[in-house]
Write a structure and sequence with these properties.
The complex is a heterodimer. Helix content of chain A is about 75%, strand content about 0%. Chain A is mostly helical. In chain A, helix 5 packs antiparallel against helix 6 and helix 7 crosses helix 9. Classes of the chains: A mainly alpha, B mainly alpha. Chains A and B meet through helix 2, helix 3, helix 5, helix 6 and helix 9 of A and helix 1 and helix 3 of B.
Chain lengths: ~190, ~140
């Protein structure tokens, strides 16, 4: 039941080898997938996610001498990514049509990935519907709740790391996560 | 058995805030256990779908993205390479130029010597004899 106890999460944690910030090409190779995934899930726009992934690593590269080893490289990169998403969303706030369009496309695209699983067509249909509903509900969450939810469920980060990324207390992250999950469940319940 | 779990209790559980009290209830209540499993599987499927979707998007983008990243990081490199090429050209070119200038000077000296030899009426080794003969043939006044 506990999401952090999934085998993938444990393997992902074990697989991350120690990398020096000076070996920046390796840092890029190692952390690009997680940063891109978070940006894509947050923005729902592949081009924007790609551009911000580049921006994130460029900013990190330029300020790599300021990196302190008391945070992990992933946490530090994620801090930059979260700030980039916030800036991007602010600049997009009035572009309602664009966001709505992206939402419609991405919800279908997301469930298309699940069509080959070994479940009955009925169960598949229910699961697809749930995923679409969660996807749409996530978009309507307040920014902090959405960020916490995506970092926890999509990027498998633990509460302490999320607190570090957001510069807040672990208890606050816990509250945001509970509210996000509860709102999503309520919305999914209404939809189904 | 107590009453069923509230929606908030299930949300807390999914959010990772498990308690032994809720756990005991889930062990005994099939209905709550099923509701929690159904709800939680939606979140798991969502997370898995986003990861797979992102992976697919990343694979499509990967070559272009890496090129763009390399290009953005290496924007200064053509200047450095140009500068390095200039330094190498100077390092190789200056000695070569000097060597060719020395050779030209030697050629010029040799040519001058040849010109001097050719401008003589007799070979250099015969010049003392010619001077002696000249003195003897002069008429005494």
């Amino acid at each position: 039941m506990e999401p952090s106890a999934t085998p993938e999460a444990i393997i992902a944690t074990m697989e991350e080898p120690p990398v020096s910030i000076q070996d920046f090409d390796r840092v890029f190779q190692l952390h690009r997938p997680a940063i891109f995934r978070f940006l894509l899930a947050s923005l729902r726009d592949r081009d924007a996610a790609e551009n911000l992934t580049q921006d994130c690593f460029l900013r990190a590269y330029r300020s790599r001498h300021r990196f302190r080893a008391d945070a992990t490289i992933k946490t530090w990169l994620m801090q930059i990514a979260v700030n980039l998403v916030r800036d991007q969303r602010r600049s997009r706030r009035l572009q309602f049509w664009r966001r709505t369009q992206a939402l419609g496309i991405d919800a279908r695209t997301l469930t298309d990935r699940m069509t080959n699983r070994e479940v009955s067509p009925e169960a598949q249909a229910v699961l697809n519907e749930q995923v679409r509903a969660i996807w749409e509900a996530t978009e309507n969450l307040p920014e902090k709740q959405r960020t916490v939810f995506l970092l926890r469920f999509v990027d498998d980060m633990d509460l302490a790391a999320i607190a570090e990324v957001l510069g807040t207390k672990q208890g606050t992250v816990k509250v945001h996560l509970f509210r996000a999950v509860h709102k999503i469940r309520q919305r999914v319940g209404r939809m189904s | 058995m107590n009453k069923h779990l509230s929606s908030k209790q299930i949300s807390r559980w999914i959010a990772g805030q498990q308690t032994s009290k809720v756990e005991r209830h889930l062990e005994q209540c099939a209905e709550c256990s099923m509701e929690l499993t159904r709800s939680h599987s939606g979140f798991v499927a969502f997370a898995q779908s986003v990861r797979e979707w992102a992976q697919q998007q990343k694979e499509e983008l990967q070559p272009a993205e890496i090129r763009a990243w390399t290009a953005s990081r290496n924007r200064w490199r053509p200047w450095v390479l140009g500068l390095a090429a200039g330094v190498v050209a100077l390092a190789v070119g200056i000695p070569a130029y000097r060597s060719s200038r020395d050779a030209r000077e030697k050629d010029a000296q040799l040519l001058e010597q040849v010109q001097t030899q050719l401008s003589r009426s007799v070979p250099a080794s015969m010049e003392p004899l010619m001077r002696l003969m000249g003195e003897e043939t002069e008429e005494p006044r």
